[in-house]
Design brief:
Blueprint lengths: L1 H22 L6 E12 L6 H17 L7 E8 L5 E10 L2 H15 L14 H8 L14 E12 L9 H11 L3 E6 L7 H8 L2 E2 L13 H14 L14 H15 L1
Parallel strand pairs: 1-2, 1-4, 4-5
Antiparallel strand pairs: 2-3, 5-6
Helix pairs in contact: 2-3, 2-7, 4-5, 5-8
Length: about 260
């Protein structure tokens, strides 16, 4: 009888623990409105002064904009050639000015010359950079859990040149939308190619509400990225994109909904 009682107690305890392990997550994910991945071109066509202007453009925008009332997560990826991508700053929760400024400080520590060496200086492979970014959104795009759940995922590509190496950019854009990314936005810098915005329009941007924000040169970059972040985050959902940016959205959106329902 004693052994039977011990066995019953053991089985009851084991069952309770099993139920708890099923219903209790190991940690709570953070719900945010948007996850945005900044993809920043630091290829060889970007000289040292232009590199500084570009990185400082992001830093100054994050330090100076008013993020009161926002609720989003961001990471910061630099890229160059086909196998040259780095997540310099991982996913960070931004919900007020202090958290935005902390993210800016992390970018400074990771990338400014006085703090570290420049990671890359090679060819230009925006398609490979987009493919690198896709799984980092986590469960929404079929990747490993990144600690955040959002209603909208955005890839934000800035650069001064078109693809000359790596994965096909238009195919990477389509793959991102198919995986569940909602929009890929572009910030072409027209210093070396005055028609780069057309190439970005045709090959980079896509998805619901996608758009271009043009910088005429690197001196114009800080103003452009400030306007872009304002449009993407501060003012909520961006304005509708051009017709080219919306090609295939219906198909991608339907498949994305199926993908997300499987991940939940």
């Amino acid at each position: 009888m004693k052994n039977s009682s011990i066995l019953s107690t053991f089985l009851a305890t084991s069952c309770s623990l099993s139920v708890l392990s099923i219903v209790a997550p190991t940690y709570a994910q953070i719900n945010v409105d948007t996850e945005i991945s900044f993809l920043v071109d630091i290829s060889g066509s970007v000289d040292s002064s232009e590199y500084d202007l570009q990185v400082n453009g992001y830093i100054n925008a994050l330090n100076n904009l008013d993020f009161t009332g926002t609720n989003f997560a961001a990471n910061f990826i630099v890229w160059s050639g086909a196998s040259q991508q780095e997540e310099s700053v991982g996913w960070t929760h931004i919900f007020d000015n202090a958290s935005a400024q902390n993210f800016a400080t992390s970018i400074s520590n990771a990338l400014l010359p006085e703090n570290t060496e420049r990671p890359f200086n090679g060819n230009t492979a925006p398609g490979s950079a987009i493919n690198f970014a896709i799984p980092l959104f986590g469960l929404e795009t079929g990747g490993a859990d990144n600690g955040f759940i959002s209603n909208r995922q955005i890839i934000d590509v800035s650069g001064d040149g078109s693809e000359n190496e790596g994965n096909n950019t238009a195919a990477a854009r389509d793959a991102a939308l198919l995986a569940g990314v909602d929009a890929i936005n572009g910030l072409p810098i027209l210093t070396d190619d005055p028609n780069l915005d057309i190439w970005y329009q045709n090959n980079v941007i896509g998805g619901t509400g996608s758009f271009l924000q043009i910088a005429n040169d690197f001196d114009d970059f800080e103003s452009a990225i400030t306007q872009k972040i304002t449009r993407e985050i501060i003012r909520g959902v961006p304005e509708p994109s051009s017709v080219l940016g919306l090609i295939g959205v219906g198909v991608f959106a339907a498949k994305s909904l199926v993908k997300r329902s499987k991940s939940q």
